[in-house]
Amino acid sequence: MHLRTRALAAVAALAVSFGLAGGTAAADGPAGAPGDIVSSAPTSFHPLPGQPTHTKAWHITYRSTTAKGAPNVVSGTVIVPQDGRTGPRPLVTYAVGTVGLADHCAPSAGFPRGTTMEANLIQLLTARGWAVAVTDYEGLGTPGDHTYAVGRAEGHAVLDAARAAQRLPQAGLGKKSPVGIMGYSQGGQASSWAAELHDSYAPELDLRGTATGGVPADLLKTADYNNGGIGAGLVLMAATGQDAAYPELKLDGYLNARGRSYVDFLKKHCVVVDTVAGLFKRIEDVTVKNPLYESDWQRVLRSSRLGSHAPDRPVYLYHGVIDELIPYAVGKQLRADWCAAGATVQWKSLPLGEHVLGVISESVPAANWLADRFAGRATGGNC
């Protein structure tokens, strides 16, 4: 816990200073299918302020699909190593963990400044010669509210980021690039949804595997786990995200004055500030009636539950035994569900892994697992 607090505090000053990436170029082509580029412009990728990475990067907006199946536009970043290699190379579509609800928290906003929290982990991938596409998710860096923790919308955005990277001429990737999916925490939810959706939504992608960890596979159980705890702010953030995707839920009608003020605050700040502001709050503190007990809310939250469909490509799934934000039992259940459905799952339990340490400690093993998939090596999993 102390390590997590120090890690978050170390980035707090930087996280709240995110600004939007530079202006975008004119649209590359007419509106069309999911993954089509709407706009692109050169940007830069820095894990720390001013740190060189020997990469080229482009801020993009691209076509995707909402949780309800409607077309939308999402922003993101495509990063390509400048190592002299030409032609197809492995492409990882990377789903970041929670950054916040405000546009200036978006990964693409922080990359040029060196303030995106997972940029150092992404650099480990570009150092292998892999291109990386990083979605900002729906409503984070584009008009509208961020549909935080809405699994299907996140999965679409992750898969369409890979499509967009392949369709970006400057990146030099093309349709033959083998694709991997990677993500943790919110990114674990997003990457796991992308894995489940691949065969129906983006089957043309040459997906080799998905490395996903700390997955909030069941939002109702995760909300109960965090209610009144250190992750309490994430519960209201998730409720705000569901309301953004499904406005018929009418979250505002459940909030008291304190809750409405709190939601307004959350929408203006990034994860570190939001987490501190929400410490130990209970749902009852900010509502006149708990929406999580209502049938429409439960139906929507269950629609983001993972495990009902087997990913059609291998999965590396990991979770910390002492994860203080996402229940370990939720991760184990996802493994059980996927295995029962016939998926190829390599499960790894992290005995000493609380939440933030989990993504750091497994960044290299997860990438090594993806490297084996890119090399065409088979895996039988350990179901």
What does this structure look like?
Strand 6 (179-184), helix 5 (186-201) and strand 7 form a beta-alpha-beta unit. The protein has a 9-stranded mixed sheet with strand order 1-2-3-5-4-6-7-8-9, sandwiched between helices. The radius of gyration is 19 Å and the shape is globular. It has 14 helices and 9 strands. The protein is of the alpha/beta class. Helices cover 37% and strands 17% of the residues. It has one domain (2-218, 303-374): Rossmann fold. It has helices spanning 2-15, 107-110, 119-126, 151-167, 186-201, 219-226, 232-245, 257-266, 271-278, 283-286, 295-302, 328-340, 355-361, 363-374; strands spanning 37-43, 55-65, 71-81, 91-95, 131-135, 179-184, 207-213, 315-320, 345-350.
List keywords for this structure.
14 helices, 383 residues, alpha/beta, 9 strands, globular
Give the H and E element order: HEEEEHHEHEHEHHHHHHEHEHH
Helix content: 25-40%
CATH fold annotation: Rossmann fold
Count of discrete domains: 1
The structural class is alpha/beta
CATH superfamily: Alpha/Beta hydrolase fold, catalytic domain
Rg over alpha carbons = 19 Å
Outline the biggest β-sheet: 9 strands, mixed
Terminal CA distance reads 31 Å
The average pLDDT score comes to: 91
Task: List unreliable stretches of 5+ residues.
Answer: 1-30
By CATH reckoning, the class would read Alpha Beta
CATH architecture: 3-Layer(aba) Sandwich
| DSSP, total strands | 9
